Amino acid sequence: MKSFEPPRRILMGPGPSDVSPRVLxxxxxxxxxxxxxxxxxxxxxxxxxxxxxxxxxxxxxxPLPAPGTAGMEAALMNxxxxxxxxxxxxxxxxxxxxxxxxxxxGAQVIRVDNAWGEAVDPDKVxxxxxGAGAKVLAxxxxxxxxxxxxxxxxxxxLAREHGALSVVDCVTSLGGVPVDIDGWGADVVYSGTQKCxxxxxGLSPFAMGLRAREAVxxxxxxxxxxxxxxxxxxxxxxxxxxxxxxxxxxINALYGLHEALVVLEEEGVAVAHARHRRMHEALAAGLEAAxxxxxxxxxxxxxxxxxxLIPDGIDEAAVRARLLGxxxxxxxxxxxxxxxxxxxxxxxxxSATPWHVRLCLTALTDALxxxxxxxxxxxxxxxxEKRLSD
Amino acid sequence: MKSFEPPRRILMGPGPSDVSPRVLxxxxxxxxxxxxxxxxxxxxxxxxxxxxxxxxxxxxxxPLPAPGTAGMEAALMNxxxxxxxxxxxxxxxxxxxxxxxxxxxGAQVIRVDNAWGEAVDPDKVxxxxxGAGAKVLAxxxxxxxxxxxxxxxxxxxLAREHGALSVVDCVTSLGGVPVDIDGWGADVVYSGTQKCxxxxxGLSPFAMGLRAREAVxxxxxxxxxxxxxxxxxxxxxxxxxxxxxxxxxxINALYGLHEALVVLEEEGVAVAHARHRRMHEALAAGLEAAxxxxxxxxxxxxxxxxxxLIPDGIDEAAVRARLLGxxxxxxxxxxxxxxxxxxxxxxxxxSATPWHVRLCLTALTDALxxxxxxxxxxxxxxxxEKRLSD
Lengths: 390, 390
Description:
The structure is a homodimer.
Chain A: E1 10-11, H1 21-27, H2 37-53, E2 60-64, H3 69-79, E3 85-90, H4 93-104, E4 108-113, H5 122-129, E5 136-140, E6 142-143, E7 148-149, H6 152-161, E8 165-169, H7 181-184, E9 188-190, E10 204-208, H8 210-217, H9 230-237, H10 251-267, H11 269-289, E11 305-309, H12 316-327, E12 329-330, E13 332-333, E14 342-346, H13 354-369, H14 377-388
Parallel strand pairs in A: 1-12, 3-4, 3-5, 5-8, 8-9
Antiparallel strand pairs in A: 2-10, 6-7, 9-10, 11-14, 13-14
């Protein structure tokens, strides 16, 4: 066995996104102990930065020590216990996953189905909540499997109106479009590091409000998960009365998240959102000039996750293989019912630049032309450049 | 918020241990996608290296995407469901944690208590297993909270004799003393990366044999944990019939683990074990020359985790503060009933060198002398040097 030298890739799939040299360098700083006073300072800075980024001044904000799904699991496993009811909106792969996890928590799940590619319909959710006595309403803000953005403010308001706690999956939204916990009145929000924050995968930023913490404290039985039991994690991360040892924090991964948060604050969160929007508009103009169409309708379309319908007669796997082989460019395939029907093109964090837009359009039109699709590279690039220069 | 620059520390606590520059450099290699063909090659190499390291030719070996406790949680949550019985040996903090987690899985727990600092007594375990109809026997091979090593071979044999599956916590043992899954006949074994492998914390090497996999397949209800559900994880890591997407693997952390495994293979696992033993003997000779005594008896003492009794009249927190302040040296405090009674001095992986032994003895005797303890630095170092030169 020899040391592993990864190939140089350009990451424009559904995550991970390109990690900047600054963040990579942070990962390689010397490891210190998880009880070191200096590490505790790092923890406090990360907590505060997450609270600013998510506009959650009164939530407990911290990074869970496992990939984004750990946030989903922590939210549902902590809030739900046998006998509880949960209304879960499903409009893609990650809503489906929520249903699965809520069932493992012992809850009775009331599904609200929406077509994959559409936003969650608040009217349907309201019907489901009415008289259901649900403890939780859970939904995905930005569906990574479809590129659809739902109206988190409207859905959180419905939850509150019907006495339910809201759980909002912001894995793909955080850093790319506004996540506004205070404005939404959201109870629990979680995210991932490998999307618009452009840190490596492996951590799940997590925010929990007071109502949710009270619900966890009032549980009848223990959380069915020790590593993600918020009663235990809060004692470790709270900083009050000395930290209680829980798990050994993933020190170097936290260096990377910290640096990614510094980078984002230097740019400015609103500026980063505008950048994602602008890059999406340029990419979309180019794709449409190449005759390609989106899965999600324009008003519900995520800038950072572009789900593009595969034209008839195109061998989509061959296109992705050519992108990877000739351009070292990774884009994503479709999941579940969208397998073979869409590509997922990410413009996330460090991968949301004009350079990425141009490379993607060049590579994709080249790969399509190799399959007897019209060569529309020039038209696509011209359309994109026009938007980039606006 | 500014970039975080950690202080330079020497890590001789119960983990994390010092991470070598080679492993730190590996962490900083460019991130690639978790479905990239090159990443899948990395996964296969890690699986094979873990199987060699643990002597587990027919077990499924893979790294779970969360700290060491994830291994404990995965083992118990996958094997146990409501109605099952588990015999759990408790001789320290991590046996206690197993009891907690097995309860969360819904199992009925039969505790076998041993004093903290002692090895697990096979006779007591046999009494508990007899006629209990236990599905699982779980115990800690190397108790990080006490420095005691138990006889994994004898305990796994008892499990098999009584029809139970064995779960062995090797978080602190792997890489420091032999872990011999095939020789022991162990069913499930897990470890951590931040101990004798000297990679950063955040991953849990995990091995599961055929009997255990069959037990998971035969469950009546779903595992109470989605992220660690081995049915799902195995489909992701198996490499058979194309990988099924599960979670997004912590790419850069896996670069670090891979490099740590390369480093260990270059040294040779048996050579590394001998090095841990030799460094322990030198440190122990020095500590004893300074009048210090161990918690665990010599025949059950872990070389890599030295639990040292605090002399009467010594302010132990002041000693640790001086080590950290004057020598940048971290050692560990006691946990639970041993809080204030012991220090835990790690000689793990990259922290098991003559340099570390000398620094620790110098710093510790200095800190003790500052509290009117006799200045025995010269005697301690001389005793250690004698063993180092043997």
